[in-house]
Amino acid sequence: MSPSIKKYVFRIFKLIFLTEILSFLLFIENYPIWLGYVLGSLASFGNFYFQAKNTENLREIAPSSAKANVFKNFYLRYLVLIIVVVIILQFINVNIIALFVGLIAVQLSIGINQILENLYSKEK
User: Fold this and answer.
1) For residue 28, what are the contacts with CB-CB under 8 A and spacing of at least 6?
2) What would the pLDDT profile of 98-117 be if each residue is shown by its tens digit?
3) Which of 47, 51, 54, 62 yields a CA-CA distance of 20 to 30 A from 5?
4) Number of H helices, E strands in the chain
């Protein structure tokens, strides 16, 4: 991965980590909610990381094979995500709503990151 993509992925990871700390403080007495959010956000970040890594690799191949590679990776990533969610729901006592909120943690972190970047760019 290029340094700029690594930096962005790490920034998103830091935001997710901060939300996990916040969720721990808010739901310290309700372990299934906290665990559901943490596992969902980790699965979401794993999906995001592999998407970023695959995107970087696509820059080096022909457009026709890149399109096929995008579809293959898309379905593979979501198949793995579905399998992970099913395993979590089957074997671990988690809150299903918190799990699905955790699965959108990357999207929320990207939104938060964009808001912060816009605020900092207006100050300069």
Assistant:
1) 34
2) 899 999 989 988 898 889 88
3) 62
4) 5, 0
Please give the Cα distance from 107 to 16 (Å, whole number).
10
DSSP string, 6-62: HHHHHHHHHHHHHHHHHHHHHTTT-HHHHHHHHHHHHHHHHHHHHHHHHHHHHTTS-
Global pTM reads 0.80
Q: Residue 88 CB: number of other CB atoms within 10 A?
A: 19
Q: What's the pLDDT tens digit per position in 21-43?
A: 887 777 777 888 888 888 999 99
C-alpha closest to that of 78 among 44, 102, 109: 44
